[in-house]
Write a structure and sequence with these properties.
It is built from one helix and 14 strands. By secondary structure, the protein is mostly beta strands. The strands form four sheets. Strands 7, 9, 10, 11, 13 and 14 form a six-stranded mixed β-sheet that branches. A four-stranded antiparallel β-sheet has the order 6-5-8-12, with no helix packed on it. A two-stranded antiparallel sheet has the order 1-2.
């Protein structure tokens, strides 16, 4: 009598079916890999860490988006549009001294010598740190009295390079002047700000070479 043995075959079939039944997929559906996430750019006054964070036409200045227009944030006058100056970190129209003075003159003269017939100050905005001193002459209007001082601001960093705030000069009853020699190594573009009774009344861009 013929005998048929199905145990091995059946076991193989069961294992095969079991293997097929437990197979799962690990793939997950993803979005379009070419799709870019849009980032909103900040307008005037918005926070930033780089120019790329700001809208077209703006740049990042002191972590704020700035257009360089009046009232925009600034570190130096170079952050402002032509003709504007940086006054207390804000782009502003040039300050006017006409309320207090008939004239303020920025000039150069020989370093180490007081003004005299042999050392006449010459109006200038460019100076040599080795040979020149910077002279500031003011002509106050009648009855105007107070104190004047200056600050020399680095136009790249916005830092105060020199200041006479601790040694203010008294003004009144006629023309007067003050001056300073430029420290060795002080070169580049600067803003020379003039203050009268703690109010900025004049600012001018100056260049100092070695």
């Amino acid at each position: 009598m013929k005998k048929y043995i199905f145990i091995g075959v059946a076991s193989f079939v069961v294992l095969l079916l079991a293997g097929c039944g437990t197979q799962t997929s690990t793939k997950t559906q993803t979005g379009n890999p070419t799709q870019e996430k849009k980032v909103a750019l900040n307008a005037e006054g918005g926070t930033c860490t780089a120019d790329a964070n700001c809208q077209t036409g703006l740049k990042c200045v002191s972590n704020k988006c700035s257009s360089g227009k009046v009232s925009s944030v600034c570190a130096t006058y170079k952050d402002c549009n032509t003709g504007l100056y940086c006054v207390k970190s804000v782009c502003s129209n040039p300050p006017s001294y006409s309320k207090y003075f008939t004239k303020i003159t920025i000039a150069k003269m020989k370093a180490g010598m007081p003004p005299s017939l042999k050392n006449i100050p010459v109006p200038a905005t460019e100076f040599n740190a080795t040979t020149d001193a910077i002279e500031i002459d003011v002509d106050p209007k009648a009855g105007v009295t107070g104190e004047i001082y200056y600050e020399l601001i680095n136009s790249t960093t916005g830092e105060i390079t020199m200041s006479s705030a601790g040694n203010k000069m008294k003004v009144g009853n006629g023309s007067t002047g003050t001056g300073f020699g430029v420290p060795m190594g002080t070169v580049g573009d600067f803003e020379l700000n003039i203050y009268f009774n703690n109010e900025i009344v004049h600012t001018v861009a100056v260049k100092i070479s070695q």
